[in-house]
Amino acid sequence: MALGGYADHVARVDLSSGSVAYEGINEEDARLYIGARGLGVKYVYDNDPATDPNSPDNLLGLVNGPLTGTEATMSGRLAFVTKSPLTGTVVDSHMGGWSAARLRWAGFDALLFTGKAEAPVYAYVEGGTVELRPAGDLWGKGVHETIAILNERYGDNLSVMAIGQAGENGVLFASFMNEDDRAAGRGGTGAVGGMKNLKAVVVKGDRSTMPKAEDRDKWREAHRVALKTIIDSEVTGPKTGGLSVYGTNVLTNVVNAMGGMGTKNSQLTTFEGAEKLSGETVRETILVDEPTCHACPVACKKEVEITEGPYKGLRMESFEYEPAWSLGANCGNDDAGVVAKVIDQCNDHGMDAIEIGNVISMYMEASEKGYVPGPGLAWGDGAGMVKLAEQMAMREGPGEILGLGTAKAAEAYGHPEIAMAVKGQAVPAYDPRAIKGEGIGYATSNRGACHLRGYTPASEILGIPVKTDPLAWEGKGALLKIFQDLHAFSDSLDLCKFSAFAEGAAEYAQQYEAIVGIALSEEDVMTTGERIYNLERRFNNLAGFDGSDDSLPERFLKEPGSGPAANSVCELDEMKAEYYEARGWEDGVVPDAKLQELSIS
Amino acid sequence: MEVRVYATLRPIVGGRSVSLPDRDGATIAQVIDDLIARFPALRERLLSEAGEIRPYVAVMLDGRDVRHVGGLDAVVAAGAEIDIFPPVAGGA
Ligand code: SF4
């Protein structure tokens, strides 16, 4: 292949037959869709959008981008891609740490799994080859124990991406986790692993095979410029910027102050206990370490140790903003020990920590309203939350139904209106009555409710690239499109989303050009992102989705929030009209002319 | 009046908030001046050389970034809440 940057090596693993075939990267696809998210979605698209996500025919891909595992700052990421059993849409879910880099150092751009193994297996990846090995002894074990056993077996320079009991038991929001507790969290990728009897992907590789740019001088300059923007930024600056010092959870106080903190299943939008769970308080009281990912000086990960209460002594990673909200304000819980404990359960059983908090808060509201049998669960009942999380992973008691996720479980209780979900996936931590760009963002996300498809809070809270009023809806449709397209490109390189707090299309283009060897303008970056976003939407259209699925729970449209959002609801219809106009879509459907314009076939 | 501050501003003021004398009907600009008089190191964190609120810094009056409700001239009513954030963002 004429393009630099790629290993030009992909494994197709048929789990049913146990055969592994190797192929190169399709150059045309690489030009159009780059890698990771974009190329990954193309693989899933070519596999057939009509596939039943729970059938062996569904494809599960682990896909790197051309920058993954290079010296590029924040390049330790890959995308898990599949058709989601939670939403029925295409999904790409990214994890950080070192797994992605190691996969690249082991010689691969992508691993593509189809079929279903007769008995549990794991894939062992080293030196450009993949072998399936029996995993009967690992089945039934949590992620942490699975990783400990595999580490003992294979030694250093190892990454393990595994499912826990949740994936095995068909929890529809199960995730793949790696050795640093980083999750491919959203969309139920772990449920697909479980359905396929694929317990883990084990990768051995070290930096000695780190890919190097052909044009060293060009690369040095591109890398220097990008790194400088990260270091100079007041958000990402190592040890100085808010993200670096406090982690993502630096958002808790600001979002709460704006009246954007969904509380008690989004019945309110302000939470009295916010400060107790904030990044500032965590840093003051329970922070013990600040891990990072491959090639990242920001080190936004925060490790904590609980010092009092029933979870005293628990040391864990991923006390992030999203789960601090989903298991905190959202459940009426202000106990950091409970938040840490349930996140740790998610890490070990392999579950999405955003979805689980919404499942619990939905169950709490259902309990309060008498929609569930038995006493149910009261707001803020920490011990009950921990028990319920366990029951979900094991599919026991109420966990049998709740393991289906917020939307399907609320439906089963006969009250879909209390599910704060879009296209079957629960909402993240920005209430769309206070931060309206997220309203149109959740509604039009191609993978169900998601804040990371188009991170408008960068504009609505911070002012990147321009400050917009979070309470105003005008202009948000067009603004969202820009973020969605830009992120679709960076997710395809694959760089951490947080690069966008400092870098932009110019830095992305320069790094791509130096590694891959193709000149790219800023406009090309945006057009490529637009192509990827439209390919995902085309997939969803073929899977039966249209504009009626670009919706929000009625609560956000009809019931005002509280505090600064006390008089505010989300003007979804107005924003949808603006957004479809900016996209050139007809009621949520990509017209043929748009497909042609973007060379999608 | 209590002005609450967050994140990297807290070490500068040595706490979560600063008590300032009540100044009924003062503007946000006057409140920020009072704050800087107490903690001069806040000046370069909050204001540009031209005396505007620095990009990405959020000065909130009753939960609204003052950029959207009158800027530095916004009037602080009795009992109003003021929260000041340095550039903060996250997302995961
Ligand atoms: S900013 Fe945080 S999540 Fe992103 S690469 Fe760095 S440490 Fe990892």
| Major sheet of chain B | 5 strands, mixed
Structural class of chain A: alpha+beta
Strand content of chain A: 5-15%
Would you identify the CATH architecture of chain B?
Answer: Roll
Query: What's the SSE pattern of chain B?
Result: EHEHHEEE
Which segments of chain B are poorly predicted (pLDDT under 50) over 5 or more consecutive residues? none
Tell the overall outline of chain B.
Answer: globular
What name does the CATH topology of chain B carry? Ubiquitin-like (UB roll)
pLDDT < 50 runs, ≥5 residues of chain A? none
Widest sheet: strand ordering of chain B: 2-1-5-3-4
Kindly provide the name of the CATH class of chain B: Alpha Beta
Give an account of the 3D structure.
The complex is a heterodimer of chains A (601) and B (92). In chain A, α20 crosses α22, α20 (476-493) packs across α24 and α21 packs across α22. In chain A, strands 2-1-6-3-4-5 form a six-stranded mixed beta sheet, sandwiched between helices. A four-stranded mixed beta sheet of chain A has the order 8-7-12-9, sandwiched between helices. A three-stranded antiparallel beta sheet of chain A has the order 13-14-15. Chain A is an alpha+beta fold and 601 residues long. Chain A is 39% helix and 12% strand. Chain A contains 25 helices and 17 strands. Chain A is globular and about 60 Å long. The longest helix of chain A has 21 residues, at 522-542. Chain A has three domains: 10-209, Aldehyde Ferredoxin Oxidoreductase,  A, domain 1; 261-420, Aldehyde Ferredoxin Oxidoreductase Protein, subunit A, domain 2 (Orthogonal Bundle); 436-551 and 571-597, Aldehyde Ferredoxin Oxidoreductase Protein, subunit A, domain 3, CATH 1.10.599. Chain B has 92 residues and is α+β, with helices and mostly antiparallel strands. Chain B has one domain (2-85): Ubiquitin-like (UB roll). Helix content of chain B is 22%, strand content 18%. Chain B has helices spanning 10-13, 28-38, 42-46, and strands at 2-5, 17-19, 58-61, 64-65, 82-85. Chain B has a five-stranded mixed beta sheet, with no helix packed on it. The longest helix of chain B has 11 residues, at 28-38. The interface between A and B is medium-sized, with 45 and 24 residues. Iron/sulfur cluster (SF4) binds next to loops of chain A. Residues 74, 96, 292-293, 296, 298-301, 496, 498 of chain A line the site of iron/sulfur cluster.
